[in-house]
Each structure stands twice: as C-alpha cells, then as structure tokens.
Amino acid sequence: MLTHPNAVTAFRQLLKTEGVRAALCFLNSISAHRFTALFRFEGSTLRNLHLIDRENPQVERCPDLPVLESYCVYVRDSAKPFLVDDSLHDERVEGHPKRQVVQSYCGVPLIDVDGTLFGTICHFDFKPIPFTRDETFLLDEVAPLLIEAIQATEWYPELG
What CATH number should be reported for the domain holding residue 53? Predict the structure, then answer.
C-alpha cells in the first residue's frame, strides 16, 4: 500500500490528467473495500455520480436512493466523517435499512467552495472490514481535491 503522502500525490496527478473516475479507481485499488463511490445530496435523494465496484468494473453508477436508506445520511446530518467497521456490532446503525447488507462504510463530506455540503466520498463493503487510520485520513485529504475537480468540469451544472 502507498504511504499517505504518496497516495495523495498519485491521486492528485490522476485527477488532473485522467479525471474523477480514474482517481476514484485508484482510491479503490488501495482500499480493502469492494466499493468506492461519489454521491451528491439532492434534498431527500442521494444521487450517485460515480461507483467503482472492484468485482464489476464495467458498472459506473448505482441507482439513486433516498438519503435515509444510506449511511451517507450520517455524514449529511453531522457534516463530519462517519465510519462503521462492522454494522452488525455497531449500535449507532441499529435499525438502519442497510445494516444487514452494507456492513462496513467510511464516508467523508464533500464541502462546496461556498461551504455547502455537496455530498460524500466513501468506501463500503458487504462484509465487515476494518478501516485503517491512513485510509480514513486519505479520504478526508482528497475530498477538497474532488469537489474542486467536480466543480471545474462542464457536467457539474447538469450533474449528468
């Protein structure tokens, strides 16, 4: 695994030369988790902008869903990172609709340049997998780079 500073440098370079999806693929490749995703909050809807699925690389997005049916709701409500290593043993997610399915999740907020909560960047998996400190810190470090790249692209106003 790359060290944190090297990973940020590699991410930044990929983002600049190959775009958001390539940078997200890189993040996914150095994570133990199957999925890496970029989501946008749109009222009560969670819109998926990019999905990296290590086992199905041809998949580019997942269907939009109600924010309340995703762990991203915890990021939205606190505007802070949210981490679950093992949902079946974490009382904070008791009663959550995805608790039995998505058993590990780490999401960090994407804050717009005007201070508005845009969405999340997250890793997740169907099985419990502990997150390392470096992995969590890396997501937090790349979040501002991602939001800057998203807002600089032509598709940002339409998001689609």
Answer: 3.30.450.40
Secondary-structure percent of the chain, ordered helix, strand, coil, rounded to 5: 40, 25, 40
Q: Which domain holds residue 114?
A: 4-152
* Of 89, 35, 33, nearest in space to 62 by CA: 35
Q: Give pLDDT tens digits for 44-77.
A: 999 999 999 999 888 888 889 899 999 999 999 9
> b/e string for 27-58 if b means 16 or more Cβ within 10 A?
bbebbebbbbbbbbbeeeebbbbbbbeeeeee
Is residue 158 in a domain?
no
